Amino acid sequence: TQGQVITCKAAVAYEPNKPLVIEDVQVAPPQAGEVRIKILFTALCHTDAYTWSGKDPEGLFPCILGHEAAGIVESVGEGVTEVQPGDHVIPCYQAECRECKFCKSGKTNLCGKVRSATGVGVMMSDRKSRFSVNGKPIYHFMGTSTFSQYTVVHDVSVAKIDPQAPLEKVCLLGCGVPTGLGAVWNTAKVEPGSNVAIFGLGTVGLAVAEGAKTAGATRIIGIDIDSKKYETAKKFGVNEFVNPKDHQKPIQEVIVDLTDGGVDYSFECIGNVSVMRSALECCHKGWGTSVIVGVAASGQEISTRPFQLVTGRVWKGTAFGGFKSRTQVPWLVEKYMNKEIKVDEYITHNMTLGEINKAFDLLHEGTCLRCVLST
Ligand code: NAD
Ligand code: AHE
Ligand code: ZN
Questions:
Q1: Which residues contact 310 (CB under 8 A, 6 or more apart)?
Q2: Is 256 buried (19+), middle (13-18) or exposed (0-12) by CB count in 10 A?
Q3: Ligand 2 — pocket residues by CB below 6 A?
Q4: Is residue 39's pLDDT more than 90?
Q5: Measured distance CA(53)–CA(18) in Å, rounded
Q6: What does the pLDDT look like over 102-149, one tens digit per residue?
């Protein structure tokens, strides 16, 4: 198949919120600096649902969504040296070129090399898509487009992993789990003995809990409007639970009262701007740090009294948990193989690519953390 167009199945999003259509899609060969991957497993993340909803200003239609996956390199374009056909890989929506201003800064995991293309659904070299249906182009998404049996990505967006690792599990290391762990370890840098509040106990919030537990946090307070979330959350390290619906007072006041003035660290893992405010305001005066992890819709804005920051609270955000993708995803895979981090525990459902619309329905039900699709 090397050098040839591949026809395969992919789930195409033609319009916001309209069911995805499983189509025969043509996938062009990888050009210079590109890699074509046979995707074997892909999970659904809340961000896929967000873009599908039409609220993502970077959402373009028709497109192939999906960004949490694992597969095997099928072929590589000219000049690609770091991976070869047969390598087991995880596509990385956060690239790492190791050459740009961002990569060299030592201050961020964001990379500038291909971001201008991945934000508009095309490949960098010719600003075109490698996907088409009957000759009509279909946009890429986040530089990954994993809801397809084959995809083409930039070489700076591919992490080569241990071939022994089970792809049906480690696909989760493409987004949600690293995001939560890294928000704690890299962005907040939680110290032993800290008090932590986590708003939203989906996969990302639970991974924050796991990260906080391993960092030695003492009180790990989970906050969710669905009380059923507490049972599962205990297994990830949450040791106190608050449902905002059980209280008259604003949730930040409830947390401040519970913690003698506020928590050392808080994390917003929902994408709700009013909860982002609560998360900041439940932090302790003088040092409390709040990390925004959730993605909020186009047009939404955050607000608080500047006095909150004047008096020492810190507001931060994180993308992919601050992890350098190509360097650290293989390291996370090894941590999983050594049983130092959970992955299997986040997988509540398994389905096929053909059942993707059902899988999206599940995502909105409280019982689903991650649903892994075999392609
Ligand atoms: P999820 O839907 O599984 O989890 C959200 C949780 O929040 C649910 O348990 C829900 O009951 C709870 N919730 C909803 N409204 C609430 C409220 N007002 N107060 C308290 N709890 C509330 O989602 P997820 O897959 O865990 O993702 C969470 C967020 O993180 C999404 O916005 C997603 O787009 C974002 N995300 C960001 C990054 C990043 O790099 N920054 C990476 C992955 C995901
Ligand atoms: N396109 C959206 C922004 C989406 C967003 O913030 N994405 C996160 C990853 S979410 C993964 O589930 C991210 O890494 N952002 C950094 C980046 O460079 O995109 C919008 O609202 O515009
Ligand atoms: Zn995601």
A1: none
A2: buried
A3: 45, 47, 56-58, 94, 110, 115, 175, 295, 298, 319-320
A4: yes
A5: 9
A6: 999 999 999 999 999 999 999 999 999 999 999 999 999 999 999 999
Residue written as token pair 């960092």: 215
Q: Mean pLDDT in the chain?
A: 97
Q: Is 186 in the pocket of ligand 1 (CB under 6 A)?
A: no
The answer to whether 275 touches 300, Cβ cutoff 8 Å, is no
Distance of CA 279 from the midpoint of ligand 1 (Å): 13
pTM: predicted TM-score of the whole model, two decimal places: 0.98
Phi, psi torsion values for 354, nearest 5 degrees: -65, -20
Cα–Cα distance between 141 and 25 in angstroms, integer?
15
Tokens of residue 289, six digits: 């740090």
For residue 148, what are the contacts with CB-CB under 8 A and spacing of at least 6? Answer: 8, 9, 10, 11, 25, 27, 39, 64, 66, 131, 375
Which tokens go with 74? 């099928």
List beta partners, residue 42: 69, 373
- Tokens linked to 328: 């650290």
Separation of 319 CA from ligand 2 center, angstroms? 7
List residues with catalytic annotation.
45-47, 67-68, 97, 100, 103, 111, 115, 175, 370
Taking the C-alpha atoms of residue 328 and residue 103, their distance in angstroms, rounded to an integer, is: 13
The closest-lying atom of ligand 2 relative to the alpha carbon of residue 142 is 19
Longest dimension (CA), the chain: 64
